[in-house]
Sequence to fold (739 residues):
Amino acid sequence: MSEIQPPVQGPVSATCATERARGLARYAADLILPGTVLVGVARSPHAHARVISIDTKPALEIPGVLAVLTPADFDGIELGHPDTDEPVLTRVARYVGEAVVAIAASDQDSLLRGIEALHIDYQVLPHACSVADALTLDQPLHAAYPDNVVRRFNAKRGDWQAAEQRVSTWVSGTFQTQAVPHAYLEPRATLVRVNGELLELVTGSHFPSVLAETYREIVAGWGAQLEVVTPDIGGSFGAKWEHPTHLICLAFAHRLGCDVAMVLPRRDDMIAGRTRLAMRIQMRIGATDDGELVAKETVLWADNGAYSAHGPAVTLAAAIRMDNLYRFSALNAKAQLVYTNNIPSECFRGFGSPQSAFAQEQLIDELAERLGIDPIELRRRNAVRAGDTTLHGWQVGSCGFTECLDAIQQRVQAHQHENPPSINSRYRFGYGVAAGTHGISNRGYDRRFDRALLSLVLAPDGMLCIESGEVEIGCGTVDLFGAIVAERLKLDRERIRVVLGDTATVPYGLGCFASRTAFFGGRAALDASRQFARACSHLAIEIGLPAKASIATVIDTAVAVGRTTELRATGRYEPKHVTLPDESGYGNTSPAYTFGAHACCVRIDIVTGLTNVVHYWAAHDTGRVLNLQRARGQVVGGVHQGLGFALAETTLVDNHGRLQNPGYLDDRVATFADAVPVECIFTSTFEEEGPNGAKSIAEPPIIPVAACVANAIHNATGTRQRRLPMTPERIWRSLHTEG
Fold:
């Protein structure tokens, strides 16, 4: 964390990459001043238990303890987007670590003593820490879902009967992917500043405008008002949306009339945070003798954990999204999202596609082997192309998928030529390929609209302020918006200030999800720049400047004569050709789609089962690359995050629902020591709908990674890895049972 600084009145500028590198970023915890009231919670030690009684009197007798909140203080309030099912403080604990009672204290020691002094009695209930157990549990985890199934999805496309008759070869398998924590560096931190009846919630969030919209109705019932300020965010990858800590802190701040803060210790953040959905996937794919992919069938079960969050949308995406990569004739997908007594799940980079790609791309390789066709050639023959409308309704605009396949094939062949296989009794080398696709935003996320707004406002000091409800989540939003506006208006970047996610001052924004920010926000920035330039032209005529006066000259003159308020503009972008999907996910949900193909070379130690990735190639169709350095950073980061998912990371939960590895020493997240050479390749496509021809690159790099490594392991050893993570022990066991 950077040095503690006093809070800033008014909008807070978001920091660019250079400022972050210099340690100038200010995260929520950095804004907590000495003397701020501290908040903590007592957590359930049981995976499933009813709270019988709570005695808060011993805690209130501790010197320094200022107030206690219990479930009764939040009656009728549940969180979740779009479905609501999670209480702020619970009367029925549904996972180990769920918050039951909250305490506010003047110092950390009093806070810890107050939590220890609480007396909470539980009635332990039957629990289920796996999907299989939840489906057979004789007691529902939520009364509204007696069979513990939250959602069922069915998507059937094409003429399945006719397609089946054309299939000459089927391949099938059952695949298991694990829950993993998001492993961001900044733990959850919440600060609430009080100014009369105004509560200012300062926290890292993907969607501050929606967060304010969600919470305003609640705090209005307390007689208060709310604004949300988004400081710099130290990583999220899909985790930081609504959270009970927000409303706990808001309630204490309103009750006590003073600033309060809560920063979760790393252990608590992992125990009561969020995870990627674990999934069990049964899949089969059928093809003709000449390698035409004809039919694909998917049956999927997803572990929702205790509460839903974005679980329904992730499950549907996992069931159908990867289908759009190839020209199948018929598709049949079924999925169930199931409540368990595990940590609540949440969307995670890739939004379900890494799980389904792990299954699909291994089966594509298996088909290639059965048919005697090169695995890249099989993909090339069936690749979706520009102008296609897929069976799920995607209208594909620009598409560089085949170019990605060509690029990795060239790299792999060159690497094989330069590194001929050697005979070694201990090590085996292998090559693998895999592909992936991703949408840009999702029209189904908010049924009202899918748009971005961005304002340009000239401040009295002559700085041009970019104001947006979108946020900087680590993808370079600040630099991108600044660069677009500076280029279009021919201004020095130093004259531009970027303010993101301050709901009191910026336009409404849906937030950072589905790799949409650069695409949507970039288009809005272009529109705002055009409008601002017109406003400058009109003002130049009025104040007697030459018709061709530069924007900088007009701004300087406007400041000098006190007419800065006349120079402002709000741009917008809302694609017209996208549609709301139906319940089965059918529809052109995004204005554009990205495609990619990966390849890697691995070395397997057959004595220990240890897998090392020797080299990695990642080719992506991301439209016109706006910032090559940042694009490479996203790809390299996504690949290494995918390698952690593929080879090491997991949440280890015992039979009682207790997380056994709540820290990065035990959850084996990839570090610099695990870094591998990654060659980033970008195809030369141009997306007409995108800002300056660009698409996006945030989420796609993680999608093919696990499947790519699994295919390389099979190439080296002849064994199929159908369960993640592919640890040395699992690979060693497969060598001794299959190899």
